Each structure stands twice: as structure tokens, then as C-alpha cells.
Amino acid sequence: MEYDIYDFDKTLVPFDSGSLFIAYCLIHYPWIIITAPIILAGGLLTLLGIISFTKFKRACFSFVPLIPLERAVKGFWNMHEKQVYPWFFERKRKGIVISASPDFLLKEIAKRAGFDYLICTHHNEKTGAIIGENCRGEEKVRRLNEEFKDYKIVDVYSDSYKHDKYIFSLAEGSCYHIEKGKRVEFKYKEKYGE
Length: 194
What we know:
The chain has 194 residues and is an alpha/beta fold. It has eight helices and six strands, in the order βααααβαβαβαββα. Helix 4 (69-80) crosses helix 5 (103-113). It is globular, with a radius of gyration of 17 Å.
């Protein structure tokens, strides 16, 4: 079967949903500021190369047990669902959205925006901790192959040449780099020389 692949953050919306959700929660549930030292320490250790980005992301969502998660997610998307770029709704084929963002955050917008399929980072909804690997880079392709056995990828859309080289390589049609909400077509071989 033929599909298109879409990254989510800064591809289908103009923001990073995980970061914006953290900011939303700080405003609506200000007591989560007590987790700030954990997040700051995790960020510093990541910059120094002591811990992985996946471990840092675990620290970022350590506030999840302190909030009414389902209500927070619905409130967040009530504010931001209209920011999904209109061109996404004009798709000609079934689309697979593959994102590093948390599943507890993207499941709601997947329902509202009518995603055909969603693959993203699994998190424990009680603790906020990542289950398995962060769905980023090569992990996106591994997870795609785990979920789909027989597929043909036609077009791929992402805002990141660096992190999404692996999913761009699957395109048998066109690759689209998203720049300020606009689709800029390019050829994989011309960009990556492979």
C-alpha cells in the first residue's frame, strides 16, 4: 500500500509540541516548577555529553504525575489545534505521522485532525518516563518497519534535514522540507549525495 510520511513538530504545526506543552503546563499548573532543577540538571548533563537526549527527555516530563494529564492535553489542543497547516488536510494518500513527541500528547490531535496512522515516542502516562527509545532519527525507520510490513512511501515531509535524513531516504516520490509552513520540494540524492 502507498503512504506519505509526515514529521509532526515544525512540520504539521509551527512549533515543538512537547516544549510548548511544558510551557502550557507551567502556566496552568505552576506548582510543577518544583521539577525545574531536574530539567535544568538534565539539560546541562546532555550538553556535556554525560547523558543521552532520551534521558534528558525523561527529565523534561517528570512533572506529569503532578497534573491532570488528560485535561491538560485537551486544554492544550483546544488552544493549538487550529495551527495544523491546512495543506495537511489536502493529502491524496494515507499518511503516517512519525514523531519524537510523546504519545500522550499526540493521540488527542491525531483524533482531532484525522491522522491515518501515528507512530511516536511511548511514555508512561503516570510517570512521564519514556518507554523504550525516543522516536527520532533512525528509530523512526525502525518503528515504521515494526508497525508496517508491506508499504511503499511516496512523499516525505519534515522540517529537519539533519534528523529526518532516514525517513527522507524512503521517499520514492518527492521529499518536502517544511520552511515556515511552506513545502519546499527537493530530491534526496541532490541534497545528501547518495
